[in-house]
Amino acid sequence: MKYKLLGRSGLKVSELCLGTMGFGTENGWGADKDTSFGILDTFTNAGGNFIDTANIYKLGTSEKILGEYISNRDRDYFVLATKYSLHDNKTNPNASGNNRKNMLRSVEESLKRLKTDFIDVLYLHIWDDITPIDEVLRAMDDLIRQGKVNYAAISDTPAWVVAKGNTLAELMGWSQFITLQVEYSLLQRTPERELIPMAKHYGMTVTPWAPLAGGALTGKYLRGEHGRIKPESNRLNDNSVRITKAVVEIADELGISPGNVALQWTRQQNFSCIPIVGATKVSQLEDNLQVIDVELTAAHLQKLDEASAISLGFPGDFFREDAVKLNSFGGFYDRVEKR
């Protein structure tokens, strides 16, 4: 496993991030403690140190399993990322949301479950459209100054909110968001409209969740293995089937799994990207780990891009059309690009 810098920080993390949303057997699915420990052993033995969880995953069981595992090992080796915002507590109106009170409460509870004195990366889990972004960043900065958190991060939030937050943090001397977690895959490319360009501008690393689209890009739905997926899911429509078939064709050509093709596509984009690979079985992770030795050709990338192309909407498509017009006038656009 190679290591990469996370965003504009000096924090070194493995080129794959282990997702632990499935650690625990609540809700009738997931990995029990022994299986979770086996997955963690496999990841760390491969050189992985970047692990993603959240306070809400399996109602806290994911964090508890991680805490038990890491407490008997070198804590400083691991880069633990967790999240706050969501919590199932109907008796406390401030037990959810992005507000400072919930953040501080959630962090204290996560520290206990994780059996650690500090969290390496703290994500805002999902934007609540209520809390001012300056309240979020000031509270995160206070936690960082206290040594309870090392770095600030954000997930599932509009690009304009993140941009406002990082600009404000730069102005005020607060810690900025260093990484952005969003759903991103060959079946979900809409972050290319605003979120990914914004992340590139601020030097943020993108950590895609569901880079395999819940397993759709492994080809399992083509084989009729629908599992828990709903029939109306967009991972089962004609568009997703067409894209998945292109993935499978390339996988067959290279002699690798379709999942490796889909994961590598995210890793070969023109921005800093560390996909989150979830697993509830050791065999699933073992297959995902093979991606570090995969390299897609320009032809492969073009085939996948064409199969999964989306409209950028306005102004993205307008800029694209404008570039074509400028090129038609003596290559002016090319000269501007080179400068």
Automatic annotation (TrEMBL):
<dbReference type="GO" id="GO:0016491">
    <property type="term" value="F:oxidoreductase activity"/>
</dbReference>
<dbReference type="InterPro" id="IPR023210">
    <property type="entry name" value="NADP_OxRdtase_dom"/>
</dbReference>
<dbReference type="GO" id="GO:0005829">
    <property type="term" value="C:cytosol"/>
</dbReference>
<protein>
    <submittedName>
        <fullName>Aldo/keto reductase</fullName>
    </submittedName>
</protein>
<dbReference type="InterPro" id="IPR050523">
    <property type="entry name" value="AKR_Detox_Biosynth"/>
</dbReference>
<keyword id="KW-0560">Oxidoreductase</keyword>
<feature type="domain" description="NADP-dependent oxidoreductase">
    <location>
        <begin position="15"/>
        <end position="308"/>
    </location>
</feature>
<dbReference type="Pfam" id="PF00248">
    <property type="entry name" value="Aldo_ket_red"/>
</dbReference>
<dbReference type="InterPro" id="IPR036812">
    <property type="entry name" value="NAD(P)_OxRdtase_dom_sf"/>
</dbReference>
